[in-house]
Amino acid sequence: MKTTQIPLLNPAEFDDYVFDTLVWKNTQRPFFNQFHVIRLEDYKKHLIIPQPPHRRSVTFFVFLTKGILERRKALTKYQIKAGSFFFLPAFQITSLDTLSDDAEGFYCHFSADIFSNSPYKTEFLQPFSFLQLTGYPIVEVGNEQSTPFVQLFNRLLQINKTLTSDQFGLLASYLNTIFWEANQFVKPNEKPIGNAAVRMTERFKAALSLHIYEKHTVSEFAELLSVSPNHLHKCVKAVTGKSAHDLLDEMRVLEAKVLLKQSGLSIADIAFKIGKLDPSDFSRFFKAETGQTPKEYRHSAY
């Protein structure tokens, strides 16, 4: 799938989409599209929760030191507890479902731009499974091991106050340290997770996320995964209680929500893009799944 086909939110566009006030509009952030770090407790009260599903142009991660939050990576919801990271690479669909009142920690995002003039090139991200589109996004560090990470984040907060492009190499160095430190807590025996049915279901979810614009039937995805449609269905059913068709429909709805909110595409174009559906068929399908017509969802607050 070509990423040029995908509508993305640049960080500067987050304000209207993620926050319920314009408080951030008055803040000078000249390099906000390239890098930003902030304490969760400094902005959580301004968040729209739950957030509509969306795609971002930057990689971001959250390190929670207190409380609980729930985020989605494509079709899967994850609960992040204190002492844990949640990583999400650019181009992946995400949403924030819940954030506890006592939540504390750090949020950070970055683009590939900061690596262009540093010893670290974007390829250095490849060893880290949690930064890949198909990787498991949570790294559990534990509260007792959190201090070094908190110190690194505090240093990034200091740098961010007077950030210049000449400091991108310094930022890349600190990010590199955070990722290698976090990588120590990735458990090899958790990759691949579960039994064969679980692994096949996770592969199917990843394929849906990557190829939803190109492939429109379960049979096409089964061929991509080198299994029969019947075997794929049995695996998905055993793990989720849903059919492979159900997950395909859920991914279509998720993509449609992103396109309705983040693009100016017509409803007819969106219908074609997610499965060559007739616009009227798409409208009926979308309302049956969400309780709203595509037009109602596009103009709703969420």
Describe what you observe in this structure.
There is one protein chain. Helix 2 runs antiparallel to helix 3 and helix 4 packs parallel to helix 7 (244-262). Helices cover 38% and strands 16% of the residues. The two termini are 27 Å apart. It has helices at 14-18, 147-161, 168-183, 196-211, 218-224, 229-240, 244-262, 267-273, 279-290, 294-298, and strands spanning 35-39, 54-55, 59-66, 68-73, 76-81, 84-88, 93-99, 104-110, 138-140. The model has no long low-confidence stretch (mean pLDDT 87). The chain has two domains: 3-190, Sandwich (Jelly Rolls); 196-298, Orthogonal Bundle (Arc Repressor Mutant, subunit A). The protein has ten helices and nine strands.
Fold topology:
Blueprint: H1 14-18, E1 35-39, E2 54-55, E3 59-66, E4 68-73, E5 76-81, E6 84-88, E7 93-99, E8 104-110, E9 138-140, H2 147-161, H3 168-183, H4 196-211, H5 218-224, H6 229-240, H7 244-262, H8 267-273, H9 279-290, H10 294-298
Antiparallel strand pairs: 1-8, 2-7, 3-6, 3-8, 4-5, 4-7, 6-9
Helix pairs in contact: 2-3, 4-6, 4-7
